[in-house]
Amino acid sequence: MNTIPRIHSDAGKRKPRCRFDYTAMIVVSMLGLPRLLEAATTELRSPDGRNVIQVITSEETEGVPRYVVSRDGQEIIRSSAILPVLAEGVAIKSRMIDVSRGEVNEQFPFEFGKNSQIVNRCRYGVVTLRTQLNLTWEIELRAYDDGVAFRYRFPKQDARQHLEIQDEWTQFDIAGHPNALFNTLSSFTTSHESPYSRKAFSDVPSGTLIDMPLLLVWPEKCAAAITEARVRSFSNACLERPSADKTMLRCRLSPAANRKNISVASDLPCESPWRVVLLGDVAGELLESDLLLCLNDAPVGDYQWLRPGKTTWHWWNGAFEKDHELPQESTVSLDRHKRYIDFCADNNIAYHAVSGDGLAWYRQSKQPGKGYGKPAADADVTRARDEIQLPKILDYAKQRGVGIRLWVHWKPLSEQLEDAFTLYESWGVKGLMVDFLNRDDQEMVEFIERMLLTAR
Fold this sequence. Notes:
CATH class of the largest domain: Mainly Beta
Strand content: 35-45%
Number of domains: 2
CATH architecture of the largest domain: Distorted Sandwich
Helix content: 10-25%
CATH topology of the largest domain: Beta-galactosidase, Chain A, domain 5
Number of strands: 28
Number of helices: 7
C-alpha cells in the first residue's frame, strides 16, 4: 500500500469519490448525429511553467476529447484521443459543460521511499462533459514540474448506475524521433519478465503489447515515460502500436479472465487510473520523481508494523531443486536454511525467504513436472510438509533474530486468505512472496488489494 496522506487543494476541497478505480468510455460516431459541440480548450501549466497539458473538444474532434502535452513549448504528445470504449459499443459524442481549476501545494512524510518528505505541487483542472445520451462524465488533469497526468470518471447519476468497459484506446501520438526502452509482451497473461529492448521509436514493433512504463528519450531535448498510477478495482493497461507507419501508441486494457469482451465492470461512481507522462531533461530525472506517489491514494490504517529490509532467497541459487528426492529423514534442506539464516544474522540482513525444495513447502498432491507454477487442487497453504521441517527453521531464525518470509502461490492462498494470514502471524512469519499472479485484470487487481488489506 502507498503510505501517503490524502491530497488536498488550496483552492477548495475535492468532491467525494469512490475509493476504488472507475473507468469510462467513448467511441467516435460517424452517423451524422446532431451538432452538439462548441470548440473548447482547457490548458494547465505546471508551477514552473515548463510542462503543459491541454484538453480540446470541438466539432472537428467528433465529440471525442483530445489532449496535447508539451514541454518548453515543444510538443511531446501530439493531439491524441481520450478514448475508453463501453462494452455495449455505443458511439457517443460529448460536449464540455463546465471547467473547474485549482492548485495542490503540500508536503508529507514518507517512511519507505527515496525521499523522507514528498513535495506534492501541481495545478489541476476538472472538465465536465455531457454525452448525447445525457450521461455526465469528467476528465481530471494535473500538471506537475516532473510530468502530467489525466484520468476520467463517471460520477453517480440517474441516467446510469452500472458501467462495463470493453477496452480503452486512449492514444499517445509521439512527436519527433525519440529512442525507446520497452518490453514487449506475448499476451495479457504474463509474468512481465521478458528482456527490454532499446530501439528508435520508429522501430518499435506494431501489433504487439508493450509493457508500461515505456521510456522515450529525445537526444538533446528531454525524456518521458508513459505509465499509470492508482490502479484500484480496475484493469491494468498495456500499450500497443497499431500500425508501423504511425507514430501513435494506444492503451489496451487487460481483459477479464472469465467474461468475454469485458475489461472493467463497476457500479457508479467509477474512475480510471491516472494516465501519466513523466517528464525530465534527462532519463535519470524520472527516477527522482515522486509524482506517482502523489497520484496514489493515502493509506487507510496503521502501517508502522512494516519493516523494509534485505532478504536472501535460496531459489535464486538453484542448489536445492532435487532436495525433495532425498530420504525424508535427511537434514540437507534444514542445514542449508540454517546456513542462510547464519549468513543473514552475521551480515545484518533482515530476512530469509523459504519457498520449498523443488516442490512448494506446503502440502499438496505431487504433480510430476509441474514444479511451483501449477498448484494442485488440494493445495493447503496452512499445512507445511513434514520433510521441510518448517517449525525448526522458524525456531532457529527466531534465535538468530532473522525474520522468515514464505513463498506461496497466489491461487491456493486466495482460497484460504484469512486463515492463512492468521496462522502465519502465529508462526512468527514476517512476510510473504506471493507468486505466479501472471495477470493484471480487474479481478487480480482486486485480489491484490484484498490481500494487502487482510495483511493489515
